[in-house]
Amino acid sequence: MPGIEDLITKDLRPTSIEFILSCVAFHGAGAALLLSLLFFCQPLKRLSLFTCEMGELVTEKHVRYILSVEKRKDNFESVVMEHLRMNGAYWGLTALDLLGKLDTVDVDEVVSWLMSCHHDSGGFGGNVGHDPHILYTLSAVQVLALFDKLDVIDVDKVTNYIVSLQNEDGSFSGDMWGEVDTRFSYIAICCLSILHRLDKINVEKAVKYILSCKNMDGGFGCTPGGESHAGQIFCCVGALAITGSLDLVDKDLLGWWLCERQVKSGGLNGRPEKLPDVCYSWWVLSSLTMIDRVHWISKEKLIKFILDCQDTENGGISDRPDDAVDVFHTFFGVAGLSLLEYPGLKPIDPAYALPVDVVNHIFFTK
Ligand code: GRG
């Protein structure tokens, strides 16, 4: 039975009627009256979530920051991102779309650069002249989906590349060199689902392998026996969600581990005893969303933490307050706020990590 304080500080959902009834039994009619008042005042609480005692999202500045990262070629961020520019394109462009500003981008220029990273094998590299890898192949497919340009690729060729990376035990390698990781299982499943080709892999074996990476604490690691980590949990839960296998997850056990990631500042860490980081606002929150346990953390505190990580002068979001901003944390901060239903942002799909309207277009209009 939760204490009164829990019920006041956490978001109340429709099922809270059951709580109110059980409170009559446990705490008496007075407590139940208080809870009823709180429950029916939820719309007011939701409104105040975004207005009281916290800064605002500096949308225009973030848009300008993201567009400027693309233009600069000689600063530190551009140099360290050289090898993963395809991921950078996905982070920046998806953030722009969530902020409602994708139309500021020259689509033909992006698509032409993206296709110059495409290989005969069917995979994509992280930049022009770089080797293909499943990591960059998903980003390329996601960017094409954002622009509704999936018709520029030979879908069978990209599919064959991904199918060739499935191993006998159902796991996936990242490229021809063979590293295995549950990140690659998610990527293969997400990518093939977007391309409507999930039937080309052995889904049953893929799911079995992911489940073999599940730990006693309810989390998932990168390989069997690997430590539970929020990033890998997103991958495993996302893959299970896309394949319709979420019933195989112990949602209460996993939800408990995930909600324990919220620290005093309101931010989330990726595993016990680690520092909070804005990117876990995505990895943890999307997982909690998929297993329907978001109400187990304080949304208000997390929103404040993300907003505190903004550079309110020059735009961009960093890992923690007062650190240097980058496009990775800017995307995951905006994506986290989108999951938290921050006003003015497009909603994002927690499994596909793409705006909901893009996902709906892929599955409901073709
Ligand atoms: C489409 C969103 C999307 C993802 C594609 C690549 C991928 C699939 C998922 C990556 C999942 C992952 C492992 C995320 C974690 C990234 C991260 C910040 C790792 C840092 O790990 P440590 O050990 O940091 O350096 P901690 O926070 O544990 O100290």
Automatic annotation (TrEMBL):
Pfam families for the chain: Prenyltrans
Example GO molecular function: Rab geranylgeranyltransferase activity
Keywords from the UniProt entry: Membrane, Metal-binding, Prenyltransferase, Repeat, Transferase, Transmembrane, Transmembrane helix, Zinc
GO BP terms, alphabetized: gametophyte development; root development
Membrane-spanning parts: 19-40
Catalytic activity: geranylgeranyl diphosphate + L-cysteinyl-[protein] = S-geranylgeranyl-L-cysteinyl-[protein] + diphosphate
GO cellular component: Rab-protein geranylgeranyltransferase complex
UniProt cross-references to CDD domains, sorted A to Z: GGTase-II
Subunit structure: Heterotrimer composed of the alpha subunit RGTA, the beta subunit RGTB and REP; within this trimer, RGTA and RGTB form the catalytic component, while REP mediates peptide substrate binding.
Entry function: Catalyzes the transfer of a geranylgeranyl moiety from geranylgeranyl diphosphate to both cysteines of proteins with the C-terminal sequence -XXCC, -XCXC and -CCXX.
Protein name: Geranylgeranyl transferase type-2 subunit beta
Start and end residues of each Prenyltransferase alpha-alpha toroid domain: 58-353
The keyword Signal is assigned to this record: no
Cofactor field: Zn(2+)
Family statement drawn from the similarity comment of this UniProt entry: Belongs to the protein prenyltransferase subunit beta family.
SUPFAM superfamilies: Terpenoid cyclases/Protein prenyltransferases
Protein species of origin: Psophocarpus tetragonolobus (Winged bean)
Cofactor-binding details, from the entry: Binds 1 zinc ion per subunit.
EC number: 2.5.1.60
